[in-house]
Amino acid sequence: MRASLLCCCLFWLAGCAVTPATVDMGWEAHRQQVSTLDHWTARGKLAVRSGEEAGTASLDWLQMGHHSHLEISGPLGLQATRIHSDGEQLHISRGEEEARVDLSSPGAVRAYTGWDIPVNALSWWLRGLPSPHSPARQSIDQGLLRTLHQDGWSIRFDSYVESGELRLPQRLELERGDTSARLLIRDWQTDMP
Length: 193
Known about the structure:
Helix content: 10-25%
Order of helices and strands: HHEEEEEEHHEEEEE
Largest sheet: 11 strands, antiparallel
Number of helices: 4
Structural class: alpha+beta
């Protein structure tokens, strides 16, 4: 009897060892659907802490293909700021000041703005996706991204909201070193041409 039970356990364990890892089909379908979304707007609140500096602001983000247009306003220690990215450079306008920042220069965004925020990756993270431009570790729950570790950042997706047929992040938190940011998206528009 013990020998039979032992054999059954060994066969069961051997079967487990060769069973391929299952792919979360809900996540794969969701990822494919959301990754095709390249025209959208997101409006909400941003809270940033970097070193001793901290503040909150309103955020309007318009994404048109590879072009990102951000408007940040409120008491983040800045005048209203407009940022345009073509994926290679940032054009930053703040009051009478204007600057161009090369995104390939490490620390250039932080040197000019005081924020250590990865603009190119953020357009992916806002949609609840890892950026395809660098390796990532992630955890998925019920077909949605819940945590992401990429480019030294830890991102937690606390809640999602429905926008049309899509489920998109509503609350997310980002952290790397002495910089942390919280985003609350109050309004998603995904039915753009």
